[in-house]
Amino acid sequence: MKMKFRSGKFPLFLAIKGGIFICCVFFVNRSYAETAKQNNSAAQYKKLIAEQQKEFQIQRQIIAEQGKELEQLKLRLDALTNQAVENKAAPVQQAANKPQIVAAKNDNEPSISPNKLPSKPVGQAPPGATEKPRPPEIPRLSETVGGVLTRKGKIVVEPSLYYAYTSNDRVFLDAFTFLPAIAIGLIDLRSVKRHSFIGAMGARYGITDRLEVEFRVPYVYRDDTQRSRPVSIGAGVDETFNATGSGIGDLEFASRYQLNSGAGGWPIFVGNIVATAPTGKSPFDVVSVQAQGVPGATFPTELPTGAGYYSFQPSVTALYPTDPAVFFGNLSYSYNAETSTNFGKIDPGDTLGLSFGMGFGINERSSYSLGYSHKHVLDSQIDGRTIPGSTLDIGQLLVGYSFKYSKRTTFNLSLGVGTTTDSQDVTLNFRLPMTFGLFDS
Prior knowledge:
Blueprint: H1 10-89, E1 101-103, E2 110-112, E3 154-179, E4 182-208, E5 211-230, E6 239-248, E7 251-258, E8 268-277, E9 288-290, E10 298-300, E11 311-322, E12 325-336, E13 339-341, E14 344-347, E15 351-361, E16 366-377, E17 381-382, E18 385-386, E19 392-404, E20 410-418, E21 426-431, E22 434-437
Antiparallel strand pairs: 1-2, 3-4, 3-21, 3-22, 4-5, 5-6, 5-7, 7-8, 8-11, 9-10, 11-12, 12-15, 13-14, 14-17, 15-16, 16-19, 17-18, 19-20, 20-21
């Protein structure tokens, strides 16, 4: 049978059929794409799971190795503990074949014998490893207390500035009494105010790690104001006299030696020797003049810059570190040599000194110290005759602060407050030690 189509409907039939075909192809491709995407996602998840399993196996292996190392460290610690007990109970000959702690090159850091125990460090240092072979650093309070010894081959250049203020009211009596309330002669009331500035340049050199030497050159400036009024001759006007003095002071030489390492719970002892040479203006060479309008009163025309005699001072300093504090003490004896003057042979009294205190470390760069110093000056003599009233007691409360500005430079400030009538009212001492190596490039 032959089918006949009208000429207008045949193209429409083809168009509908083609659209249906295209839709079928689109849905088939989309389904295929979704299937491929799901397959790729599954492959990625499988790959990720495989990587996580591999990482998990690596972590398990690391944990297992760390557990083995921990067991080994425990075994080493047990061996060291047992060894310490055996060394105390048995003679040295019986412990020769057991693991021993042998001294290192510096005699302070023990190491483990490599033929018995591994040389790797253990979790806890053996007893005695924390002992410090050198004195701890504390703010310097005097020439014999504070600071740390200069290391071998190092030089410390230390400029310093010292200030002292003293005020004193004195009564001079040049008279005799025939009743307790009546005096015939000169009674002089005198007020003295004294300012002293000392700029010094010092240098310390470390011959060994336990021995250092020091040399200091001071420059002194002094200013005194004295006000005097005699009360027994009817004078109604005060006599004021000013005097100054400046120049090179007494040269100073010092040496310090560390006597022991502080092992076995002992303090660290440091021996000190300080000597001075009378290079400054001597007080025995100062000329005095008669005061105008005040009979019997004399005033110096200039002030001395030195002591006028040689001195030699040995001392011993003890340092006991108990982190973070350091306790210190110092005993000294100063021998003052006899000297010849226009007044005769003068023998200045020798001096006994004692100081003690505590230094405290705030952090790695800052520290402070508190201390007390007392000096007892024995009687002086002229031509073998003792000068009455020449005994002196000089006491001071000391406060020091130190700041490590850099590896080479440290700021050091100390304050002294007088506690006796013979001592200065207040003293301030600023030091700036700078460390250099002679063979540094």
